[in-house]
Amino acid sequence: MNTESISEKKEVNREPSVHLIVFKLGSEEYGIRIEQVKEVTFTPEIARMPKIPVFIKGVANIRGDIIALLDLEERFHISSSALVNGEAKSYSKSYTLVLEAKDYTIGLLVREVPQSLSIPVSRIEKTPSFIQDLQINDNYIEGIGKLGERLIIVLDIHKILTFDEAEQLKA
Amino acid sequence: MKSREQEYKEIFIAEALEYFDALNRHISNLEKTPDDDQILAEIFRLLHNLKANAKAIGYLPISDLAHKLETAFELVRKHELTFSNEVATVLFDGIDLLGELLSNVDDPNYKILDESLFHNLDILAENGATKDLSEATKVQKLNARNLTLSDLIYIQIKKLDHLLNLVGELIIDRDRIISLSKDLNSEDLKAVSSHLYRITEEIQFSVMDARLVNVGTLFNKFPRIVRDIAQAEQKEIQLEIIGQDIQIDRNILQIITDSLLHLVRNAISHGVEKTADRLKKNKPRQGTLTLSAQSDRDNVLIKLSDDGRGIDIPAVKKAIVARKSLTADLVDDLHENEVLSYLFEPGFSMAKEVTEFSGRGVGLDVVKNAIDSIGGRIQVTSEKDKGTTFTLHLPTSIAVKGALLFEVEEGYYAILLMHTDSVVSIDKDELHEVGNMLVANIKNETIPVIYLREFLNSNDAHMNLGSKDRLNGTVQNIIIIVYNNRRLGLIVDKLYRQQDIVIKPLNKPLDNIEIYGGVTLLGTGKVCLVLDVPAITRYFISKK
């Protein structure tokens, strides 16, 4: 944990805060509430599965559980620098956030080591309404957290998964 | 203790229901041979035991009824009462009521609606009630009965399911350890793992064995059912049962119960002709239904045959055209087997054209789905005026299944052996481009063949299955799969081996991807995708 976040913590000590796991997609930072994250691990070998939506990269064996791995950059259509260079993206040096929903587990692929940090509830703003209006189906953004210079998009993982399923059926 | 009491009750019910089945079987037989003393003695014994057990556990209405029936049968046995039509009706009703009481035993609000049956039974008993002595001897017999504990224990299937799941997990880990011991090249580890292999093999076998039941437990319910349906349809039908003692996993038997009932009902209602029609065709007046079971390697074959009118192939063809599944000239060229396979398509009904398969809200597609779900398959053959035979190929056991492993583009895949017909290697030149497909002549049959790599990797718009250009190398490995009487060849990159696998279901959000039946872990820890043959075949049928 870096010094910045520690000083932030001190400052907000008495306020109720939200504990997030923060990771980068493209050039922005995204966060997911720690309760929804089961573990963070090096990405295991991915078994490619033909005939599934492109943003699901396949399945992997994590301690005997076989879970689907999602690339949110592709899911959100975010262009990342890594994507432009090579045609095939490699996930060999990436990390997997294992998320636990009510009745199943799923993995998110992220490029850099995810960080853990606390942010006061008051620093998380509701999503500006016009963004909600623009992306009717995509209101998986729970809010936008501001911490000094940083801007963290807080995701509601349950909504991402629900939407995946909807799109899934079309595929 | 309450739970102990509950357990006793459950055991009583389980036993009583077995008795009930047996009673039904015997009384149906008795109706045909009313003088058979052996059957009478057996009925007598069953009622007697049932009465005693019901009394012991405190189910008095059941023991009373069993007692009354027993008295009536006693009279029949002593030839003081003839097993005539009226008598038979009362006794059948009595046994039905017994079944009703058994299934409502836990309902405190349940009341017998019609007391007249008791009255009838009393009248029967009184007709020969001069011998009050017989009653007394019976009570004595009851008291003199030796107390013996059964060698059987009743166990909830849930517990066995759990055990079998654990065995599945164990096997995956075992294979993992064996492959690690090879990688590490440690002699000690190899010795231990080969011992582990033997033990898990034995555990697996024992648990699977514990779940096996006789097919007879299901078959023996049918004499009564057939009698009732035949009577309702005013048809004369005899049922032959063969191979009751073939063993099969209890859950598989459970899953096919409704399907078999459906097929039997169809066979009686629509397959077998009325007596007058049969005589016109020079057939024996009594129709015959044969329900048989036999072992076939690791599978069990259950066959249901009737000697009725058979399926009207031209009418099925008409129905195919009417549904616009195929054009008339294409249908004309179809092989008979293929015509029949359309009967299993969802929503396929020929209610108007032929009555043989007019459904009652349940079609043959439902039967087929049930059988697919346990990795089995169903076949039908039929000959005009000779009859129809349905054959169910069922796995003996659920959890561990034989599969063929192969590789496509560095990914591991498996197909259940149940769905594979054969494996062949043929030269590229023997494949021909026909329309949008490849075909090959294999064992004198023209079989469509698809290049699995192309099928898996191209989206529908760019898929080109009719071109040989994309094939690698000259010799092609082809797995021939069979489903619903149709054969399809799959070209794979590399063939591996046969192996028993434990299939894990795919979780959300991948649980709806049709072509996968699940995944399994290989000994190396690698994920292997299990292809769902029914779904792949369906894909190509809908394509056409």
Automatic annotation (TrEMBL), chain A:
Pfam family, one: CheW
Domain named CheW-like: residues: 17-166
InterPro entries tied to this protein: CheW, CheW-like_dom_sf, CheW-lke_dom
SMART domains, alphabetized: CheW (SM00260)
GO cellular component: cytosol
Stretches assigned to coiled coil: none
GO biological process, alphabetically ordered: chemotaxis; signal transduction
Cited Gene3D superfamilies: CheA-289, Domain 4 (2.40.50.180), SH3 Domains (2.30.30.40)
Entry protein name: Purine-binding chemotaxis protein CheW
Naturally occurring in which organism (per UniProt): Adhaeribacter radiodurans
UniProtKB/TrEMBL annotation, chain B:
Modification Phosphohistidine occurs at: H48
UniProt EC number: 2.7.13.3
Protein name: Chemotaxis protein CheA
Origin organism lineage: Bacteria, Pseudomonadati, Bacteroidota, Cytophagia, Cytophagales
SUPFAM superfamilies hit by this protein: ATPase domain of HSP90 chaperone/DNA topoisomerase II/histidine kinase (SSF55874), CheW-like (SSF50341), Histidine-containing phosphotransfer domain, HPT domain (SSF47226), Homodimeric domain of signal transducing histidine kinase (SSF47384)
GO molecular function, one term: ATP binding
Positions of the CheW-like domain: 400-542
Catalytic activity, reaction form: ATP + protein L-histidine = ADP + protein N-phospho-L-histidine
Family annotation (Gene3D superfamilies): Histidine kinase CheA-like, homodimeric domain, Histidine kinase-like ATPase, C-terminal domain, HPT domain, SH3 Domains
Alphabetical keyword list: ATP-binding, Chemotaxis, Kinase, Nucleotide-binding, Phosphoprotein, Transferase, Two-component regulatory system
Enzyme class: transferase
Stated role: Involved in the transmission of sensory signals from the chemoreceptors to the flagellar motors. CheA is autophosphorylated; it can transfer its phosphate group to either CheB or CheY.
